[in-house]
Amino acid sequence: MVSQLKITSAFKEWNSVVEALGHGEQIIILRKGGIIEDEGYFYPKEKHFLLFPTQTHERKELLKKVYPNESVIDGSVLIKYWAETKWAGQIFSEAEIKALDPYHIWKEEVVLERFHRWNEDKVWCLVVRVYKFKNPIRIELIPDYAGCKSWINIIEEVPVRDSEPVIGDSEFEKNFNNISKICRFIPL
User: Fold this and answer.
1) Which region, left, alpha or beta, applies to residue 50 given φ > 0 means left and ψ of -120 to 50 means alpha?
2) Is the confidence at residue 37, as pLDDT, over 90?
């Protein structure tokens, strides 16, 4: 039962992308992987995770829309959202990547760079249901959270009982159906 769920994993993503997810403007995460992934490569290892906003590598010229960074203050980060992975899969087609353009805030050149990075034409796509905490959680930044990696483990368990979906069921299903017509996914 989701209301009893406690999360200890967080997914690091550009602040503006976290806010776009949190405002229901996108339901996908496209990821190739950070430079220092624990396993050496990215994979969607968690079904439920906190969305951990970061400014690492974010630049306004790489995004269609930019949100102000109000999350990192005095050595701590404000966690407003958590996500549940509904479907995930690797995309091996540049045409599919380009067709996803209306469903995210990254500029095309960012997505294509990720797709072609390391001479491997593929990228992970996660379709996520995002929830907003009624009372955001402030987490102290520690050295373990630093670096160019996707997943981090949070010291304390974060209960999700006081949260609600950022978009309604019908809007999520409509967006998911549109995206699933573009990409082939594997269930998690």
Assistant:
1) beta
2) no
User: What is the C-alpha separation between 103 and 99, in angstroms, rounded?
Assistant: 9
Radius of gyration of the CA atoms of the chain, in A = 16
Provide the token pair at 162.
């006081």
Q: Which amino acid belongs to residue 96?
A: E
Amino acid at 14: W
pLDDT tens-digit profile of 129-168?
Answer: 999 999 999 999 988 888 788 889 998 899 999 999 999 9
Domain ranges of the chain: 2-187
Summarize pLDDT for 50-68 with one digit per residue, the tens. Answer: 999 988 777 898 999 999 8
pTM over 0.85: yes
Secondary structure, 3-state, the chain: CHHHCEEEEEEEEEHHHHHHHHCCCCCEEEECCCCCCCCCCCCCCCCEEEEEEECCCCCHHHECCCCCCCCEECCEEEEEEEEEEEEEEEECCHHHHHHCHHHCCECHHHHHHHHHHHHCCCEEEEEEEEEEEEEEEEEECCHHHCCCCCEEEEEEEEECCCEEECCCHHHHHHHHHHHHHHCCCEEC
